[in-house]
Amino acid sequence: MVNEGESVNITCSVTTKGMLVGMYLKKEVVNAMEVLYITNNGSTLTVNFHYKDRIEISLLKTEVRITLHRLQKNDTALYVCRGSILEDFEPNCVSSQGTILVVKEMEQAECHVASWVPYVLSFMALISVSALGYLILSHIAIKKHCQEGKEKQANTVYEDMSYTLRLNTLATGNPYNNC
User: Which range of residues forms the domain containing residue 152?
Assistant: First the structure.
């Protein structure tokens, strides 16, 4: 029994008087299929597409070690090694003991731990929007306040200048009147 995502080794060994031509690893019982076929010298390797990129093979003198990686729940089955042999120039098939593989699902506890994440993200988004709104309104208020101050200053200076000009005009006579 292994957990989902782990790896497992299956060792296939066939002892016979004949010559081993090739070896099959077959998945039996649930969704029966040929997982792989390998020739005696390892020159030809055929892997079922369900196991592509998840299988590793080591050839030893009298056995083949097959490692299945990233196991999935649907990999649960009985795996049997079958050898194709030539005995007295007659093709024959021999089987080895089967390996029962049970893949159990990962614990769902991780999902419960992460259930608070959407609430935290929503709260953070609300805080961010509120802070942004506050900054924008503050900027507008400051800008408006600064513009009001400039308008008052401009009017005061203008009024002072116009008053001074009026006084100067009244105090000095018209130079063209003396003609």
Answer: 114-170
